[in-house]
Queue: 2 jobs
Job 1
Amino acid sequence: MRRFLATIITLAALAACHPKGGEKPVVKDAWIRLAAVQGRPAAGYFTLLGARADDRLLRIDSAVVDRIELHESGMNGGMTTMRPMTDVPLPAGATVEFAPNGSHAMLFGVDPRITPGTAIPMLFTFKSGARIEVEAKTVPAGGESGDMAGMQH
Ligand SMILES: [Cu+2]
């Protein structure tokens, strides 16, 4: 019983200091690095903020991109590798970053009229049913959003 009470108290303390998320997840700071060669995939980055309840990012769609995949990066024998993720867990109140060298969105078949500086609309769909549209700014291949350099992904 004493152990049980201690658990309750610990949980209450955790709940008290846990940051409260909003009703819906938030998508912020979305940007896309276009490919150096037209026809090659572009890479998209953004930050997810979890809502009050656990959620999952299921997919991203854009009217000007044929197909968008969610990829995670890893290292394999000194080489950067990546593999598709079917969805992305977004726990309540958590911050999940898609950033260069880490997880990223891969944009296949970007409309050739998109040039650096053109915004790309992206619609994020979550398991909770939340759908959030953001405008991602685009930068040229090798360009940065202020935080990183050089990598393909
Ligand atoms: Cu990728």
Job 2
Amino acid sequence: MTTSQRDFYAILGVERTATDAEVKRAFRKLAQQWHPDVSADPAADTRFKEINEAYQVLSDPERRRAYDTYGEAGLGGGAGGPGFTGGFPGFGDFGDLFDAFFGGQSGAGVRRGRPAAGSDLRYDLRITFAEAMKGAEKEIEFPVLDRCEACGGTGAKKGSAPVTCPACNGRGEVRTVRDTMLGQMINVTPCPRCRGEGRVVDDPCETCRGEGRAQRAKRLRVSVPPGIDDGHQIRLSGEGEVGRRGGPAGSLYVAVSVAPHPALKREGTELYYDLDLSIAQAALGTRVSIPIVDGEEEIEIRAGTQPGAEVRLRGKGAPHLRRPGARGDLHVLVDVRVPTKLSARQRALLEEFAAESGEHVGKGGPGGSGIIDRLKDALG
Ligand SMILES: [Zn+2]
Ligand SMILES: [Zn+2]
């Protein structure tokens, strides 16, 4: 029997002035950390029991006042001392612990006592490059488990209704209590009779055999925003599969794949075009026609443009998905091609060009090309 005074405030790590909400929050956090099913710490059982005892006292205004005034002695032995006594002392408000484990605040995760949500679906939508640039309205059709029209989704035959599950009284969960050396341990599992829904159908709908849903083809219009890119997903919440017996619908994820443009490469909002120029075009400058999002545009190449130069067309890229009206740039990346086949005249002209620049061209070492030159040199 423990006779020393324990500090329930210290156990929960709260101030003596802590509000009910603060006490509850501290308890949830510690319970999640120390629940023996979760924690691998050998002391978890003891610690969890202690946390729970402290919470039982501090969450009850009357018991908290008695504890504040008289210490544990003021509690009349109920929550003090080792070992649980009484019928269900472990969890006065079971919902507190349950919420702590199953995300009662966020709404995410498992919620028992109500039908589960339906599955999410994925639809693969292929669009053209132009549609990705301008945006598009697409009509899609897909098979989906939708609400059964015969029973309105309840799963019960017309004229009847689902009833509260007699096995769990509508809670959707079953608690089993077992005695251990450290007191009672409580195990919570979904009710096997109602699968955690809290309600059962005695007289099932004939159309859906009590499922509350049926397969049908669904048609939807999907707005594809301008600027969407390959691999993006559009989420349509509530357009997925409905849950059993009136459970909420999951989401439909429209996975977009965009056909590539034959000449333009895309990275986000930026577009790239590889432009090959001849030596003469690069040296002398020119005007060339290049593909843009909606057609072609003529651009000017200045005389003396080098390989690797970039001409940037501002605002001619892909639209920004989140900034309507804004667009990236189109980058024209210049390369200069050296000719590999020359006509006799082209060769002569290039040789002339080299001679004009005082350059040595063709085979042989500098200062003399061909064997004739060397012979001439040798003969003086
Ligand atoms: Zn039905
Ligand atoms: Zn049940």
